[in-house]
Amino acid sequence: MNNYLQHEMDEQELVRRLQRKDEQAFREVVQLYKDRIVNFLWQLTGDYEKAVDLAQETFLRVFFKAYQYRPIAPLMSWIYAIASNLAKTELKRMKKMNIVSFEEIKNFFIEKEPTYNPPEKEELIRSLREALNRLSPQYRIPVILKDIEGFSQEEIAQILRLPLGTVKARISRGRSRLKKELEKMNSLEKGQSSRGERKNG
Questions:
Q1: What are the residue boundaries of the structural domains of the chain, listed by start?
Q2: How confident is the model at residue 162 (pLDDT cuts 50, 70, 90)?
Q3: Which ranges constitute the DSSP H helices of 20-118?
Q4: Could you tell me which CATH number the domain at 1-98 has?
Q5: Taking the model in full, what pTM does it have?
Q6: φ/ψ (deg, to 5) at 148
């Protein structure tokens, strides 16, 4: 039996146990997916404590709504769908949103010592965060799922329960808008820099 089939069987058994309200199965699900879900929600909200709270709410819903799960999509996709819906609701309530870069999240979890980033890299991270902050959730969520979380477009369509064509369009438009925001910010910074040089000259 190949690894894929074994994984499918193991996952189905895990889901069956979860549907029977098996608390050990619930702990296994949390252990498997908690870090990725917290990271995903952190990227969307920019608030680590809020991300943890939303992740807890996500897994509570997984436990109590396990009977609603249908094996037409991987369990992970279903969990991301729940987290995405909670994030959308939360983002509507938040007046100011700040995106945390994937590099910062990765460093937080896997590196004991803080690393030094050259000024150029810090500037790039800051610009990317601000540009993502200006995207509406309908574009931000698919772009993060694709370019940071690494899901395929088909998987994102399952997670967001949208037609594949809609997902492709939103990723394309999101990337295009992100690029325009970065270009706009770069142009403004160059203008400010040149004015400063003329003033000092």
A1: 1-98, 116-201
A2: very high
A3: 23-45, 48-64, 75-93, 102-110
A4: 1.10.1740.10
A5: 0.69
A6: -110, -45
